[in-house]
Amino acid sequence: MTAAGALLLLLMSLFTSGAGADTATEPTEGTARFAPGFVHGRVAVDGANLHYVRGGSGPALVLLHGWPETWWMWRDIMPELAKDHTVIAFDLPGLGASSVPTDGFDKATTARRIRQAVHRLGFTQVQLMGHDFGTLIAYPYARDFPGEVTRFAVLESPLAGFGLEELYGISWHFRFNMSPAPIPETIMDNDDVPTYLGMMYQFSYRPETIDKQTYFAAYADPARRSAGYNYYRAFPADAENNRANAGTRLSMPVLAIGGQYSFGTGVADSFRAVADDVRPVVAPDSGHFVPEENAPFLRDCARLFFAAQSTTPSRPELAGCVR
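User: That's the sequence. What structure does it adopt?
Assistant: Structure tokens below.
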């Protein structure tokens, strides 16, 4: 057996023995260990049971992660944001420690599931921040329920139907993940998860900041990998839905963040097709995985944007983040 194969078997054994998606560093029940005041929880929604981590008090700030990661990607910014907000970081349906639904991986359906979870946790108004997939899910939440979303931050993804398709020729993983089942499932089930996902983390400018081992464990389960592919397979439906509803423009402020060595202002360019108040911000010294590559910048930027009132930024690169 190769060293890579042995590592994969070890990671899979950790997952199937009950360690769960994030247990390389965190349990999935009880008090969270990564910072005081945070707890793990679960909430039932239509077709799934969602895992979340919650802490702080005040207005609800919901964090939605991207692929191939979990809620854990937000760990370095959550304690600071919890000084002013009730921070709730979900594992998306089918990913992390959330259960795998049988259908409904289009982003509008997923947004409704997240909204249902938020309501069952006792909140009817939220602020949203999403990365990658989380951006694609947060958008229909804000669009379809505008009275419930007061402010909206998006990181590192153009919208399906408004720029996402232009990326398909840049990296082969888009078409691979979108391939009909069981093509990617079969290939990856006979291959090396750390090699494939490790390649994805090379979209970072500072790959040493990515907690790769945690995410390798999170996607060691074939059902989690398949759920990730299903989110990709829904991209055409997402594009159709977004274009059909583009006339319902977002009126709340949209903070559009792109990494200096990734999308840059491209996220803002995409969201101008659907929103009236778009604030472009470039995260310095960062590629695609901004929350891990430059957590101090994102912490400061998000606190400014989600603050109760405007504050003078401490550094010039934060000027676009001001409320």
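Confidence is low (pLDDT under 50) at residues 1-24.
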